[in-house]
């Protein structure tokens, strides 16, 4: 963990992928952007541009498990996305249980005054920041 300084987190989805950046030192993350995806496939050049800009030490992909902790079709797709990130960019890629991050992100937006309108102002990047902070917190307690 000590070698990790900067990480990018991904909230994987079939239509869009939220991206966040986080620091291992502070354990905090913030929203970056939401990338469009076609049936779960992003524009890889956009991801490459983010990696060039931020120069992360590792990547974290949210794993959408079922509430009982079992794998789902979406978690299998997220794992495939994680393997593709690793294969294309040769960076360490970790997965992290992201159960309830989207729910939590929507709650945070509601408390901030947003009511609905998640198409116009999606919560995916905020969910990516929350899952990245969760992964960083888990590393500090490990």
In short:
40% of the residues lie in helices and 26% in strands. By secondary structure, it is of the alpha/beta class. The longest helix has 18 residues.
Could you characterize the architecture of this molecule?
The chain has a single domain (6-141), classed as 2-Layer Sandwich (Nucleotidyltransferase, domain 5), CATH 3.30.420.140. It has 4 helices and 6 strands. The protein has helices at 44-54, 73-89, 101-111, 124-141, and strands at residues 6-11, 16-23, 29-38, 41-42, 58-63, 93-97. The chain has a 6-stranded mixed β-sheet, sandwiched between helices. The longest helix is centred in the C-terminal third of the chain and has 18 residues, at 124-141. The protein starts with 5 loop residues before the first strand and ends with a helix. Keywords: Cytoplasm, Hydrolase, Nuclease, Ribosome biogenesis. Belongs to the YqgF HJR family. GO terms for molecular function: hydrolase activity, acting on ester bonds; nuclease activity. Residues 5-105 form the YqgF/RNase H-like domain.
């Amino acid at each position: 963990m000590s070698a990790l300084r900067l990480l990018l987190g991904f909230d994987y989805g079939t239509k869009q992928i939220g991206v966040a950046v986080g620091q291992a030192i502070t354990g905090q993350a913030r929203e970056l952007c939401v990338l469009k995806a076609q049936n779960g496939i992003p524009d890889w050049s956009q991801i490459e541009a983010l990696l060039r800009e931020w120069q992360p030490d590792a990547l974290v992909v949210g794993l959408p498990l079922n509430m009982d902790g079992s794998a789902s079709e979406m978690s299998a797709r997220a794992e495939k996305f994680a393997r593709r990130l690793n294969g294309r960019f040769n960076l360490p890629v970790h997965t992290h249980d992201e159960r309830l991050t989207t729910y939590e992100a929507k709650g945070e937006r509601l408390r901030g005054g947003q009511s609905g309108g998640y198409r116009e102002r999606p919560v995916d990047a905020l969910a990516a920041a929350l899952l990245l902070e969760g992964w960083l917190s888990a590393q500090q307690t490990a």
